[in-house]
Amino acid sequence: MAIKQQRKKYSGAKHDRERTMNKMIISVGKVLEEKGYTGLTVSNISKCAGVDRKLVTMYFGSVEKLIEAYFMGKDYWSPATIGAMEFFGNTQKSGSRELLESLLLTQLILLQKNRELQKIVAWQISERSELMAHVAREREKMLALFFTFADREHREKDLDLRAISAILLSGINYLVLHSVNTNSTICEIDVSTKEGMDRIRAAVSKILEWTYSAR
């Protein structure tokens, strides 16, 4: 009987540890969304999780390892990737222009709705970080699907879709971050409104139309 009770106690302690670790990992996302990447401190994360700050080091070794555990379990780009794969399954009807437009506009929608992703993009361009490099590499895997498809379509055409895509993607990221962090217009367009975002979507489509019609 004593042996059974000891095993039960050990199992409970193990589950408590796992639950606490999970609470701490989840709290990284909550702090990131509320305070940005500069707020990812031991004090803020442990307070959000409602645990002793010493547990960060005890369970993860360091706050950096805790933050790493959070990001390694995230996939920010799967919705856009799934949309891209749907286009791949319908290549007779859709070419690389439609695919690129889908990827860019999906990114626009995702970034507009996801405050955590907004913080991630801001972090990526603010300081060098191996964690952010990992997130960026996941994005590049998604884009590699598109470029593989587009290269077959435009072998004989002098069209640098990589450079054009980089400019459009960077512009989308900046426009969204600008709209959520300021109360000002950009080029007299209020990107925080539906009308403003509709104009941006139409402009992306028009730029791609010009790009693909160029010889």
UniProtKB/TrEMBL annotation:
* InterPro entries assigned: Homeodomain-like_sf (IPR009057), HTH_TetR (IPR001647)
Q: Which Pfam families does the record associate with it?
A: TetR_N (PF00440)
> Record keywords: Mitochondrion included?
no
Query: What's this protein's name?
Result: TetR/AcrR family transcriptional regulator
Keyword Lyase applies? no
Question: Which keywords belong to this entry?
Answer: DNA-binding
Which positions does the record tag as DNA-binding? 41-60
Ranges for domain HTH tetR-type: 18-78
